[in-house]
């Protein structure tokens, strides 16, 4: 008897989705769903920098940037904590990580080198269909730190 694997259902955080979504109003939540942001897309990319290796506990991060004017905290802003880092950043700029105090999920990063822009993780976006379309990474950065077994886009 053969069975066809069904794609997994999207994870809905315990706090539930924030609102109805479309490409313009998609929301991003952490693992527990406490903090929720409403993004406005600027661009998408894979980052292979050594900081992203550590902060994601993976070999790259899949990201998108938004203008801060579009970063809307729908709920849970009081649940966000920050951690700043500058000595490991290749440019020497300071990067502020905003993460959920409850579950530890990184929600977004802000760099002093890119004023007015926030960097969010694609995996935080609640509408999984956008991962295959509008949020599909377009470029890679810090490719000199990409591991050899990982193919380019």
What does this structure look like?
- With 153 residues, the chain is mainly beta.
- The chain has a single domain, classed as Metal Binding Protein, Guanine Nucleotide Exchange Factor, Chain A, CATH 2.170.150.
- 7% of the residues lie in helices and 32% in strands.
- The strands form 2 sheets. A 7-stranded mixed sheet has the order 6-7-8-9-4-3-10. Strands 1-2-5 form a 3-stranded antiparallel sheet, with no helix packed on it.
- The chain is globular and about 40 Å long.
Task: Please count the helical segments.
Answer: 2
The share of residues in helices is: under 10%
Specify the structural class: mainly beta
Beta-strand residue percentage: 25-35%
Order of helices and strands: EEEHEEEEEEHE
User: Strands of the largest sheet, in order across it?
Assistant: 6-7-8-9-4-3-10
At the fold tier of CATH, the topology name is: Metal Binding Protein, Guanine Nucleotide Exchange Factor, Chain A
Q: Count of DSSP E strands?
A: 10
Mean pLDDT: 79
């Amino acid at each position: 008897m053969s069975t066809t694997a069904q794609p997994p259902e999207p994870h809905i955080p315990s706090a539930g989705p924030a609102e109805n979504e479309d490409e313009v109003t998609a929301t991003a939540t952490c693992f527990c769903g406490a903090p929720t942001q409403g993004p406005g897309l600027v661009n998408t990319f894979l980052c292979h920098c050594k900081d992203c290796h550590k902060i994601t506990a993976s070999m790259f991060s899949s990201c998108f940037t938004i203008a801060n004017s579009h970063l809307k905290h729908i709920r849970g802003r009081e649940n966000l904590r920050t951690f700043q880092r500058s000595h490991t950043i290749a440019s020497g700029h300071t990067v502020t990580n905003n993460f959920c105090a409850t579950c530890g999920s990184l929600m977004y990063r802000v760099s002093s080198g890119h004023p007015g822009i926030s960097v969010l993780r694609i995996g935080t976006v609640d509408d999984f269909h956008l991962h295959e379309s509008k949020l599909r990474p377009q470029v890679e950065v810090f490719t000199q730190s990409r591991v050899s077994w990982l193919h380019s886009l």
